[in-house]
Structure formats: structure tokens, C-alpha cells
Amino acid sequence: MSGATHVRYELVRSLRNPLLYGLSIGLPLVVYYAVTSGNRHAFVYAAGVSFPLYFMTGMAAYGAMFASIGPGGRLARDRARGWTRQLRITPLRARTDYLAKVLAAYLVALPALLLVFLAGATLGVRLDAAQWFEMTGLLVVGLVPFILMGLILGHLIKTDALVQVMGWLVVFFALFGGAFGSLFNKGAMLTVVKALPSYWLVHAGAAALLHGDWPAEGWIVLAFWTAALIPLAVFAYRHDTGEA
Amino acid sequence: MATVSTASAGIRAVGLTKSYGSVHAVRDIDLDFPPGETVALLGPNGAGKTTTIDMILGLRRPDAGAVTVFGVSPATAVNSGLVGGMLQTGSLPDFLRVRELLSLVASYYPHPLPVEDVLALTGLGDLAERRTTKLSGGQAQRVRFATALVGDTDLLVLDEPTAGVDVEGRHELWQVIRGLASEGKTVVFATHYLEEADVFADRIVLIAHGRIVADGPATEIKAKVGSRSVRATLPVVDLSSLRALPGVINVERHGEVVILSCSDADAALPALFATFPEVRDVEAAGGSLEDAFLELTAADDPPPEEVG
Fold this sequence. Notes:
The complex is a heterodimer of chains A (244) and B (308). By secondary structure, chain A is mainly alpha-helical.
């Protein structure tokens, strides 16, 4: 059997879903241009981090979070249609299916990131090649918890409720992670929001610019969320397929 | 030695049992289908056919008992690409065209049929570029059938494959199944139509209330359930003299009640009254399959709750 075909059609199905397009590419681009155009020369919390760079990473993270959580929506629809049951009587392994969904999530997330980066460049964001690369790499790693969240919700929540739940979840993480501007710059609340994976997604741009604004703390937070979500995903899978 | 003894095995089940809470869906079912056989699981809705099929496919774990498919566990058989199935319910994944869906499912199997062949075989050629969400119920059912075939598997398990298909479509679908059976594939299908079971199966397994109530060649089972049964109160009489009446196939006694299975109730009833004028409380049960099942199972069983 060929996992490649499965990956291809997972991607095809993502790209034909207008909802995913709009939320992961259209919305962040529109918001980015609308907000940043008037603030091109502003600076945010850290020395040398321009508003266009900060907000570019924020909106890239926001769109990529939608893209990452998207395959979970497809899983929920397939589940509601009885298709996941049908897949269980084919030789397709759950492992291959998951891998394909993760790859498809990235293949939608990456263009979403790149288009916002392009928009950033048109509004004066200047980074060297290594910095662009580092920022993209950090975002790619930081999306892992969101892909897992999507799959967990896809196994556990019905499609009607899922769009709501996913929408609010992404908005929550984006808002408190600082994607629309940092809410807390000091004190206990800063410590709290730093425990969110989205905080580190949003700060990938600044980290790349400053080489060091992404400390060990960031890796620990992402590793913690990933380690906590994997067993939940296994539970959700077993709960869903009656293998618990 | 175990592998030698199971090398020629088709589907074997011993003591399969499955309950949902207090509902006994399947109760101690044994199956032994050799490879290459076409078997109908025949029974009314709620008899336990789907639960049995789900256990053969490894979708549900039996509470007790075990099933093997070609000598291995259902999961192993499924993962090896030996099993193609069509479940009773379910629709198709969205954002795909019919041809794409079949290519996708084909990619899971080691030696699939060419997608074009399957499209032609199932009469889906004209719908190949249609989105799966733009199909009528009958068309979607055909596509589901096609996804079961495309893997070119040794075993095909079809749970009520003709549900929702029009008469013409039904005929075409059975032609395809018959062709596959003649290629030596093992086919197991569930149906509640006696006619389908009779015409297309080598063997019929009759299921009611979660138990096998009859198992044998199609012709034999048809005679059994295609008949009408007559119940009567007749205390002192020799069963063999009842069996000798015209149109009577079989006789059972339960206390004062006798049950005559009749191939021709119209002949049997007048003969019964003429020969045994003392007969009372005569009832003729209708010829529907449901009634036949009730007759077959009334003797040994209080009617339990049922589940599909």
C-alpha cells in the first residue's frame, strides 16, 4: 500500500475546503494588512522588534493554528459519516492515517505562513535568510500541539459543535498568546500566558530577529503540551474506535 | 500443525457472543464457512446479523468466543488486505470525486483492481467525476459497493448491499457479486430478503434473536422458511400420522400443541380437519419471513429484546 496516495487525498480534501482557506489564509492576511498599514513604523515591547514583524508572526501563528487544527474537523466529518469505520476494515493503518493528517496540516499551514510573511515583506519587514528560516522552523515545531488538539477534538466532538469549539479554541490561544498584540508584559499573567504554546508561536519572529528570545522555557512548554496531548490523543482514538 | 489445519479455512467462529448492556445481540454462534462459498446471513431486522458481521470484520470484540478469517484474526486478515467490506450504514467522505475515492481506497490494498474496471463493473462510469456529496442514495450505495470491490480481496463481506437500491440496480449488483463468487472469492452477505438469499447463496444461515436457527443449503432452508406453519391443539395423536398429511413437511409437539410446517397449507388444513375432527384452536401463520422466524424460535426461547 502506498501512504503517498493517502497523503495526497488528505491534502486535496483540505484544499477543497473553503472554510479552511478562509480561516487560515484569508482572515489573517486581511487583518494583517488592515492593522499594520497604519502602524508600519511602530515598535513593540523589545528593542528592534518592529510592529509589522511582531504582528506578522502573530497573524502567521493565528492562520497556521487554524490550518493545523483543520484535519481534526475532517476526522470528525468522516466519523459522523461512518467513513472512519469503513477505513478500519481496510489495510490502512491508523499510524499512516495520522501521519498523513499531520503532513496535510503542515502543507496547508506552510503556505498560510508564507503568504503572511510575504505580506510582512511588503510592509517593510526585513530579515536575513537564516532568520526567515529560523522563524519558520520555530513555527513548524510550535504547531505540533495544535495538530494534536485537532485530532483529539475530531475523535471526541460532534461536527455541529466542532466548528464552534475549534474557532473559540484558536481565538483563545491566539488572543492570550499575544497574536493580536501582547496582553500582559509583566507579572503573574505573563507567567501564565507563557505556559501557552501559542505564546511561543507568536514570539517566533522576535526570537529569530534577536537570536535568543526563544529560551529553554519555550521548548519546555511545547514539550510539555505535546507530551500531555499524545496520551489524550491515544485515549480519544481508543474511545472512538471502542478499543478502550 | 495449527497453521496446516487452518490453511484452507475460510471463516470460523466458535461460541461468538455479544451483548450491549442487557441486550443479547449475538448468543453463542458457531460458523464454519469454507473458502469460495457464498453464504447468506438471513434474518429479520434486529436478529444479530450486523453484530455477527462486525465481529467477523474485527469492528467489534466478542464478549465470548472467537472468530478467525482465513486462519488468522480478523485484524490480521484486514491488515493483510484479504478483506473487502461494505457496512450496513455510512456515507462517503466529502471533498472527493467518485474516481478519486476509489483510487484512494485502492491504494490501501496490495493488489487492487484497476479503478476503471471497477467503475465499469459497477456502472459508475458516468459518475466518475461527480463529487461524493452530489450522489443520490442509490448511487452512493453503488459507490460504497465499489469501494468494497476495488481491493480485489479474497473475502467480501456485504451487509445488506442492496438496501436503498432500485430493482434494476439490485439486479446489476447481484450479477457482479455472482461473477466474483464464480472467481472463487468467499462472499458473506446479510439480507432480510429470502429471495436474495435463495437465488445468490450456496448456503443460508438463518439467524433470529442472536442465534442460528437453521444452517444449510439454500434449497433446504427455503423449504423450511418459505412454508406456512399451522398451530393446533391436538392432545392425543401420533406425530407420524400428522406428518403423513398432504402438504406437511415437519411436525413438532409442545405439550398439547402441535406445529405443522407446511409446504402447502391449503392442502394440509382440510386434511387435518378431516383426519382429526377433535382438533381445536387452529391457527395458520403467514408466509412472511418474520413469521417463519417466530415459528422457528418460539419453541425454545422467550422473546428477548432485540438489537441490530
